[in-house]
Predict the 3D structure of the following.
Amino acid sequence: MELYQTESHYILLDSEFSLWCNRNNGALEPKRGNDLCSAWNPVCIGLCYGIIGKIKLHPDSEWSLLLIKQRSLVGEMAGKHKIYKINKIAVLSLNSTDPPELELEFCKTHHFGIRKAEQISRPELLQKPLLKTWNTIKSAAENVKPKKREVKDKEKFEKRILEELLKMFNEEESFYYSETYDLTSDLQQQHSIDYDETLPIWKRCDNRFFWNKYMMQELIDFKSEEVGLPDHWIKPVVQGYIQMERCCMDFEENKTPGDSPDDYISSSIEPLEYDIWILSRRSRHRAGTRSKKRGLDETGACANYVVTEQIIEFSPHLVSFVQVRGSIPVYWSQTGIKYRPPPRLDKVTASVGVNIEYC
């Protein structure tokens, strides 16, 4: 999808859909794709593959939009559902200042023949508007003024959060999504009576593994006269691990020198190919560091809860085996990394009996 810049908005265009991101107040508004014609002087600044959501790095800072800058294909489930791993993201601040270099992929339509070196030395080739002299002077003047301690602390906090955010998405490579397959639900859930495949993915997914739900809340709550406009942009992202390997069963046994005809059985069965998937989904509830998050909370959410599903796909058949793991499902805490001193039970009710043994 293409990312456009105007004086008042950033606009994401994906075929028949567009998402208008206000640069003054950070509001998101989904529209039709042909509404781009009503924008004043839109300038294409590159390509991206979707949005993760909107976030504030500090309560007093402006809104920022998380864009999927690079992705890689993990595989295709059932031969039609593409599953992607998020490799890199870009953070786009929704403000009136000129955006920093996001290093997005070039758009073949608007950036034809432009090289990376030319982009840096000649920004006008990207159709960017001329830099405003007033903004430059204003920025320089603000740097000369002595900054208050609150401002310095705010900038330090924003920088730290931004670094952690980029590290989490760009280095760990543990976030995945699919535009057509529900990665949050296992096969048993997807084939249950209450599962409605006609609904958008975000409306039928398992909220425990919908990691970017909070960042998508504005689009989830958006009311539109046209059905489906916000749904196009809401893609659940899961954290965990997903891998697919293609295997082959070869039934042919070759005869080696010295073997008699009775030592092997020839077969005319063609080799069979099948896929093995492993999908680990980590719950977004109580997902802190293992040594600091223990037990469960008042809602029953268990710390470090992970559902691992192993799927064997032999088209058109799919079979799966599901394993779950998590912290001990009682109220307890821990002061150190090891089990010495032993865990302390914070709450014990008459209906719950606990027996913990240590090696």
